[in-house]
Write the structure tokens for this entry.
Amino acid sequence: MGPARAAQRGGLVSCACSHEGAHPLLERVEVLANERVTDRVGLLALHAPRIATSVRPGQFVHLRIAAETDFILRRPFSVHRAGGETIEVLYQVLGRGTRELAEAERGRVMDAIGPLGTGWEVGEGVSHALLVAGGLGAAPLGMLAEQLAARGVAVSVAQGAPRADRLVARELFEAVARRVVLATDDGSVGERGFVTVVSERLLKEDRPDVVCVCGPEVMARAVAKQAAEAGVPCKVSLERLMACGIGACLSCVVTTVHGHKRACCDGPVFDAGEVCWDGSEVPPRH
Amino acid sequence: MDPKYRPATDGTAPAGAREVDLSVELAGLRLRNPVMTASGTFASGREYADFVDLSRLGGVVTKGVSHEPWAGNDSPRIAETASGMLNSIGLQNPGVEAFCAKDLAWLATQDVPVIVNVSGHSVEEYVRVVERLEAEPVVSAYEVNISCPNVDEGGMAFGTACAPAAAVTRAVRAATPRPVIVKLSPNVTAVVEIARAVVDAGADGLALINTLLGMAIDAESRRPKLARTVGGLSGPAIKPVALRMVWQVANALDVPIVGMGGVMCAEDAVEFLLAGATAVAVGTANFVDPTVTMRVVDGLAEYCARHGVARVRDLVGALEA
């Protein structure tokens, strides 16, 4: 990342951290709204003026959901959308942290670190991008779709979920993308089956310059293989259990051809070609 | 630094907090205050430079370094547990050469004592790491890790019996004139015996405790939550065990102790000092609040001011019956 990006985040403390230009922020954020969008996914809107103005697609915030509790670690959430002084986060209720988050009411204040991580850097030369979203993987791709469309990039979206009502952010994609093709396990909308069938077709039909992927690792791996066969660069966002979120604890490593890299700062978005799909990661249950 | 995270001693602390003498002497090191970082929770400090003024720390204890690069363990490497967490990172590190070129070069630009945590698979490897580090003037002291529960060879195997613990200590002692602090394992029956063996072998100080060996299971999947099945428990859950061990060793031996295990705030730090520790290390709390070390430093001064304690070292071992 270049100096332009660092300058964009002006006014912050001088930084000597290893990831040049990245300036993690501490911010007290306030819940503006918190509502269910599917049977198991919630949408949290947070007043976070500093994060909102500096976050880039694919980056995340590290939330301390409750201060006085026996689950002490923060929880990382990718930013779904950012605008004005507000960020939006999509979350699935999976464990102690997200159960507590689901109970958070308007006005609740939390401590956030962010924006963190390396997101999708889509170069100026890209005129057509294919976004592949599996389940809640749609969350960070929402912001990417909006920003790419705003700068005139043609966006195709392949989105999959178990059933129609779990296609989160479908409306956002349909509003900004040139084309959205859906797949559901039960066939309740779109094609019946996995989203990888759709992504394979769109790679051929739309001939994108780049593929951006977020979803279950088995899906990301399959899409990465399709993109490699089509000769199209592919950038995947990977999920790992995380403690510090800032590169110190080495909990969140991803095995790459360059050795272990940290999902929190070297990622969460990686070039698919460098990822060793060793299958060692079980789905996080935080 | 964000104004909200400025040190409280910038004018909001109680009267007298700024006059408190926070300095301590630890195994020949003069520290500006007794608050250090626990190895493996602070990398080499660079990642925390956005959140912490390193020159306000008593010392930085680095992530463990071995002679050759170590890849560490498979994922998942952490699991959250009640009031704590398990980790099985497995001492992932780039090896001592890369550590000197990157981490120590950066630390040399910072105004803070540097204690390097040294790991090895064999006595010889500990010595080779120290021999290489002897060429680096920025190193103030060594913390010898004989207590990591997450590696198959070396690590805790050296720290759970007197003879191997003493052998590592003796070899490192012979390799350096710098202070040698040995980090002890809590996964033993009689910590005082190991502590005595290590001190007799030439340790200038002791650090305790490392993590407690534990495990976590996912009932839904019927699988271990860690790829390596077992890992080291840290966080507030282990503070009572840590306090007990510090107190036992402090009562039995005349040796400076760095106390650690679940320090989340200044009050916790005071408890370790009262139990007999000369300094404390903040570990897991760095993951929860990256500014926590600053809060502990400020809170110690406030505690002393509130209790009419002029010098923080007067708290060491001041537990009342």
